[in-house]
Amino acid sequence: MKKRITKATNSIFKEKNRKKLFATGFITLFAIVGIIYLVSSYAALLFASAEPENGQTEGCVSILHDSQAAGGKAIEFKNDCNTSQRGANLPINYNLNSLSGTIKYVAENGLDTASGSAAAPYKTLAKAIASSNNNGTIVIRGGTYREGNLNINKSLRIIAYPGEVPIFTGAQDFNGGWTAEGSLGYRAYSPQPITNGSGISFTTGQNQTADQMGKHPDQLWIGGKQLKQISQKSQINNNSFWVDSANKRLYVSTNNTSKTDIEASSKNIFAIISSPNTSIEGLHITRYSDSAADSAVVLFRSNASNSSIISTKVSESAFTAVKFGDDARVLNNVKIDKSTIERSNWMGVVALYTDNFLINDSLIQDMNYANEFTFSPQSGALKTSRTRYTKVTNSDITNNNSQGLWFDQSNVDVDIANNNIVNNNGSGIFFEISDDLLLINNYIKSSGTAQPVKLAGSSGLKIINNTIVGGANPLGIYTDFRSIPGCSDPSKPLCANSYNSDRDTLRALPNTMDWMPRLDLMINNVIGYPTAALWCGSAAPVCITSSNGSASAPLNTIIHKAEAARNIPQTIIDANVYANNTGTLIATSVGSYKTISAFSTAMNNSPISISGIEANGKYGDHLFNQGGDLSNSLISQEGQAYAMPNNTNINQYIPAGTKKFGRIIF
Question: What is the pLDDT of residues 592-628, one digit of tens each?
Fold first, then answer.
């Protein structure tokens, strides 16, 4: 067996015979140093590949075509097993001497009356912020800091000490001090406020599931376990707690009053950043109980351009973990890099009116973990509105009980590349009334009625070398109820059932942003195994709709001829591979097709009248399995894949001339 180290998207799947592979093959691999070497890549992460012994995979691995592995195959470890190497790798390590300028230090055993030097550190970050000069650096030693509601109003680099993890928590120690009351115990407690925010009326139950407990930001933990807040005192058990707001008490079962390591809500947010060129690096920010009106636990205001979160973990937020932008100004050049956002109840990351926003090499998982919020009108691992030039790259968006990546309302020029987007209970990707999407080289998998890719009322769609499997209609291109001429234009009257927030009022309207569905390029994708039918009435791998309420978009405007006046190219659909047993492969408003030749013939006729569509398309369950693993038969035909066009934006992810099917590991 041969092993190599490559740089590529890293995800985590297990092999059926993993005991044999791990116990024998991997020991042998690590013993033979000479067969380990480095190869360059177009993606951002280290990735280990190996040849499977029996060619069969299950669960957490996928077979890849790899010309440098024995037999031309390798195993890719994917993200279904929740052991991804993407995200924050704490503690961070770097040379302390590499820091320059004025440096202030913070340590658990420090004093705020000290000088803030390495030998005499401050005790609190608040003191270090107040004492630092603009463009200064704050180094924080490992330990637990019960601080919050910080205002970072100067440009600062806030970074963990090498090899140590500073934990900032919004929770208070709740050990001891319980008063018995029958089979229950209580302690004095100040309930977190219930507020509205982001246009949602939480106080009246909007966006919440049946018990409407999501509007309460109160949280309680025993060790690493979070208890569920319930609405009635009589329902308290060992897994729940109840807040008596009238008497300002928090109740738990008697069994829990004797437990150690109990923590409860205390602070709502970690920090508001209101200066440019500010970075947060190497911290763990956890257990803040923000309410809807707080915007987020970490808020980058619209004047905080050129700011970032790097190698940082933000976890267990009551509402929203991180937000970029907070008013009608454009926030430019901000990023989340090598970071983990997990177990936030409502939403993970929000971006509003941003330019050049990047999420890279990060992990966003377990949003809405308590199932207290509905998937609409807002939810998700990422929710954006009126952004431009956004990129989500080399990241894992997984196991969210909500939407995964939701680009909602007038986003322009979005790249989603080299990601694993799996097991999200809403849409894996939801691109809504927006323009210019490059969806390239992703692994996207759903199950049940969840949709892997939902593209609604959006134009300029370029879908390249993705593996999209499972869920309801794995690739859906839909007409939105706002797909009406003039709806997207702020200079014209607002359309019925639309909102002012749907339209971007800060920038000029691109002439291609018309909220009409339009597919420009769809090549080399592996799409199959739908588990449910939604808008097309049949469980087809690809579903294209032409109407929604009073809105209409004829199929020949979705799959379209060139339009020179708006620099719109003619649609290219070719070399895609489909699987759906004997069922429909592609369902459209003018017909459903069980063979590629039937679809090609129909597209050559009116109203489309485009010849050559799917000239090299393929179908059949023998070509790839339900995990998206390619068969030897399909791999042997890759010379028939569509050659990657010579395009600067596309070629930053896949080199020009490349011929491969599905997601590629370099």
Answer: 999 999 999 999 999 999 999 999 999 999 999 999 9
Mean pLDDT on 298-305: 98
Q: Does residue 40 carry a pLDDT above 80?
A: no
Judge whether 490 and 510 are in contact, CB under 8 Å. Answer: no
Give the separation between CA 125 and CA 145, rounded to whole angstroms: 9
pLDDT at 496: 87
Report pLDDT digits (tens) over 151-197.
999 999 999 999 999 999 999 999 999 999 999 999 999 999 999 99
Average pLDDT, the chain: 89
Among 229, 652, 149, 143, smallest CA distance to 440 is for: 652
Residue 148 has a pLDDT of 97
Percent of the chain with pLDDT over 90: 85
Host H or E run for residue 130: helix 125-131
Decide: 233 and 227 in contact? Cβ < 8 Å.
no
Which of 256, 268, 133, 119 lies closest to 193 in space, CA to CA?
A: 268
Query: What distance in Å separates the CA atoms of residue 379 and residue 392, rounded to the nearest whole number?
Result: 18
CA-CA-CA-CA torsion for 5, 9, 13, 19, nearest 10 degrees? 10
Q: How far, in Å, are 423, 577, 578, 581 from residue 621 at the CA level? A: 22, 10, 8, 6
Query: Token pair of 391, please?
Result: 């990129």
Residue 55 confidence class, pLDDT cut points 50, 70, 90: very low
Q: What is the pLDDT of residues 251-271, one digit of tens each?
A: 999 999 999 999 999 999 999
Which H or E run includes 126? Answer: helix 125-131
Question: What whole-number distance in Å separates Cα of residue 542 and Cα of residue 424?
Answer: 19
- Single-letter amino acid code for the residue at 464: I
- Under 8 Å between Cβ of 473 and 452: no
Distance separating alpha carbons of residues 427 and 402, to the nearest angstrom: 8
- Do you find a cis peptide bond into 493, omega within 30 degrees of 0? no
123 Cβ contact list (under 8 Å, min separation 6): 106, 107, 108, 109, 110, 111, 112, 114
Q: What is the DSSP string of 585-653?
A: SEEETTEEESSHHHHHHHHHSTTT--TTTTTT-EE-TTSB-TT-PBPHHHHTTGGGSPPPP--HHHHTT
* DSSP-based three-state secondary structure for 401: coil
* Residue-wise DSSP of 260-309: SSEEEE--S-SEEE-SSS-EEES-EEE-----GGG--SEEE-TT--S-EE
CB-based contact 86:396 (threshold 8 Å) = yes
**Counting beta carbons within 10 angstroms of the beta carbon of residue 462, is it exposed (0 to 12), middle (13 to 18) or buried (19 or more)?**
buried
